[in-house]
Design goal:
150 residues, alpha+beta, eleven-stranded mixed sheet, 2 helices
């Protein structure tokens, strides 16, 4: 009887640990995020017109790949390689860092951070673009987002 009770206790502790583990957010590993922009926005190799887009990470082990789809998922618009970026404090909303460009050029997304995460995604541009961005002003924008699972 003691052995049965001890095994039941150990099993309960193990199940409880798995239920409370950080891995419980595994369904958010792809960081699927819906973003709407009221003006054109640049990503590496592409200018996206004003509109709504889905940003989603690639499958494991390619979490440094960001795929961008149109609002109804009917067309993949970009597949981008990113580097890991860090911020000091996580926020409860999606945050993007933009390079403010001259008036004849759209703002460019430099970094994207998923809610609750300090590690995010830095978009990789050509060396020419990188030099331009160094002299452009930067601003952080909290984007109203919708993260869903379908």
């Amino acid at each position: 009887m003691r052995i049965r009770n001890a095994l039941s206790f150990v099993l309960a502790v193990v199940v409880g640990c798995f239920a409370l583990a950080p891995g419980a957010r595994a369904d958010e590993a792809d960081q699927m995020t819906k973003m709407t922009f009221d003006h054109a926005i640049e990503v590496p190799g592409r200018i996206l017109p004003a509109g709504t887009y889905w940003f989603i990470l690639g499958d494991l082990p390619n979490l440094n790949v960001v795929r961008i789809y149109n609002s109804n998922w009917s067309k993949q618009l970009a597949v981008l390689i990113t580097a890991t970026a860090y911020r000091q404090q996580a926020t409860s909303r999606t945050e993007v860092r933009l390079a403010e460009r001259p008036h004849d050029r759209p703002e460019a997304i430099l970094k994207w951070f998923y809610p609750g995460e300090c590690a995010g995604h830095e978009f990789l541009y050509s060396p020419k673009h990188e030099r331009e961005f160094k002299r452009d002003a930067k601003r952080d924008v909290i984007v109203h987002y919708l993260t869903t699972r379908s």
